[in-house]
Amino acid sequence: MTRRIDIVEVGPRDGLQNDPGDLSTEQKLEFISRLEAAGVKRMESGSFVSPKAVPKMADSGDVFRGLDRSKATRHIALALNEKGVRRAIDAQADEINFVLVAGEGFGEKNQRMSPQQSADMLAQCAPLVHEANIPLSATISVAFGDPYTGEVDPKVVGNLAAQAQRAGVAEVGLGDTIGVATPWDVRRVIDEVRMQAPDVYLRLHFHDTRGAGLANVAAAVEAGIDVIDASCGGIGGCPFAPAATGNVATEDVVYMLERAGFETGLDLDKLIETAKWLETALGHPVSSSLSKAGGFPSS
Prior knowledge:
Elements: E1 6-9, H1 11-15, H2 25-37, E2 42-48, H3 60-65, E3 74-79, H4 82-90, E4 95-101, H5 104-110, H6 115-131, E5 136-141, H7 154-166, E6 171-176, H8 183-196, E7 201-206, H9 213-222, E8 227-230, H10 250-259, H11 268-282, H12 290-293
Parallel strand pairs: 1-8, 2-3, 3-4, 4-5, 5-6, 6-7, 7-8
Helix pairs in contact: 2-11, 4-6, 6-7, 7-8, 8-9, 10-11
């Protein structure tokens, strides 16, 4: 059987949160609808964080109210604290993704928390999510490097994953928030997390800031990872990570994986069309290679 790699589309949240262009709520819903038409079954559709800190996500409640719930897509809401979790529950999110932080400097800038404080906050919030009967995932940000304090010890990442496991989190994402990882870093951190948290399912999240995004995806897949975050058009970045550019582009990841014989269940042509639509909606070019070059030449 062909191995399947599932893509979690993060464009409507991580992709848009720091983009210089502004999409209206209606345009965000069209973006989401286009992604659903391309076969996306799981996506980050908004975040319930401070609108002052991340103003581009201020309409996430309206976005969730406007979703077409008849579709098979699971819509994920991101949260950092109890207030955000309660708002995500009220918005009837299909899944809540809680953010842990592996770096002291980034934690202070992004969440006003240390790594341990973010784990403690997850432990406080997890019962609320479980009681609401909503799937709970967690992403460990700056798992491969902190823009303010530098190197991150893989043991810190493993310890956070272990605490997430104890909080009842079934899936943990490892986030290369500032795009510093290499394929060898990817394997080292995965091995450490598997040792400390053997029961969690792993998802990997890469930014292509230094051009290693696709290589890192390949390294993760070779290490047995079956879930990858990606953003249509390669849009994205974090307001609290200097020079952090976009996520790996969904269409570029799909092209690479399907040429290698993996299944993704996504329609590459429709993803490319959506990336080109984004250029008009956002008012600037997107960074993905496939939006420029197209897929494999037809004979």
